Amino acid sequence: MADDYPDVWTAALPYMRARKNDVHVPLAFDFALQLLEHHPEAEREVVLLAILLHDCGWAVVDQEAIFTEGFGPNMMESDVRRAHELEGVRIATGILDTLGYPAAVRDAVVAIIDGHDTRREPRSIEDELVKDADALWRFTPAGVAVACDWFGETPRAYCDRTELESGDRMNTQAARDIARREQARTRRLLRTAELVDPVAAP
Questions:
Q1: 98: domain range?
Q2: Residue 192 Cα distances to 16, 24, 46, angstroms
Q3: Looking at the domain assignment, is residue 98 inside a domain?
Q4: Residue 16 to residue 25: CA distance in whole angstroms
Q5: Is 24 a domain residue?
Q6: Residue 1: inside a domain, yes or no?
Q7: How many independent structural domains does the chain possess?
Q8: In the prediction, which pLDDT does 1 show?
Q9: Which of 41, 43, 53, 144 has its CA at 20 to 30 Å from residue 152's CA atom?
Q10: pLDDT reported for residue 68
Q11: Are 28 and 143 in contact (CB under 8 A)?
Q12: What is the pTM of this model?
């Protein structure tokens, strides 16, 4: 399938374990495919390559700082979050050049990676879809399981908070619809209605 990009996945693999990106990126990639169905006007290759490579930079920044600085209040403005974008530009440029992608495609991809977290306003429909696909994983059971540890919250507390934020965080109606669907499924699977309080240690 043309959307699989096996050569890019292979090249990106050494950067995927950091910050659970071998879970996050495949889920975000699938959400990008879903969003593209609703936005055929977007440049498909740019969106898919950008979401595939967007978080490679986490592998080469200070790993302790990811968790001490990259979460919590004002986390989107933290130095470590900006550093992962800049390193991501460097890594993605190298991968796409090595694999022979046209300069125009490479430049469009890295322009999205550069600021995909810290830039508040998207610059294009491709940028919007990457931002939305990047955020949608937080509503899946896997995303909740990972983020609960990062934020020190229970699944219910995390679901409650992200549900309140979801309308503001998403750029497209398609992403808002997917978020609601995933939220409902995750709450059902994780039984957030029943598991209200933190489980006491034995």
A1: 6-190
A2: 30, 22, 37
A3: yes
A4: 8
A5: yes
A6: no
A7: 1
A8: 43
A9: 53
A10: 60
A11: no
A12: 0.88
- What integer pLDDT is reported at residue 13 of this predicted model? 96
Supply 80's token pair. 């470590």
Residue by residue, what is the 3-state secondary structure of the chain? CCCCCHHHHHHHHHHCCHHHHHHHHHHHHHHHHHHHHHCCCCCHHHHHHHHHHCCHHHHHCCHHHHHHHCCCCCHHHCHHHHHHHHHHHHHHHHHHHHCCCCHHHHHHHHHHHCCCCCCCCCCCHHHHHHHHHHHHHHHCHHHHHHHHHHHCCCHHHHHHHHHHHHHHHCCCHHHHHHHHHHHHHHHHHHCCCCCCCCCCCC
Structure tokens of 142? 């896997």
Q: Is residue 199 part of a domain?
A: no
Torsion sign over Cα 84, 89, 92, 93: negative
CA angle 81/56/174 to nearest 5° reads 80
Condensed to tens digits (0 to 9), the pLDDT of residues 100-130 reads 999 999 999 999 999 998 998 999 999 999 9
Structure tokens at 35: 């969003």
Residue 171, phi then psi, degrees to nearest 5 = -95, -25
pLDDT number for residue 129: 97
Residues of the chain with pLDDT under 50: 1, 73, 200-202
Find the CATH number of the domain harbouring 55.
Answer: 1.10.3210.10
Length of the chain, please?
202
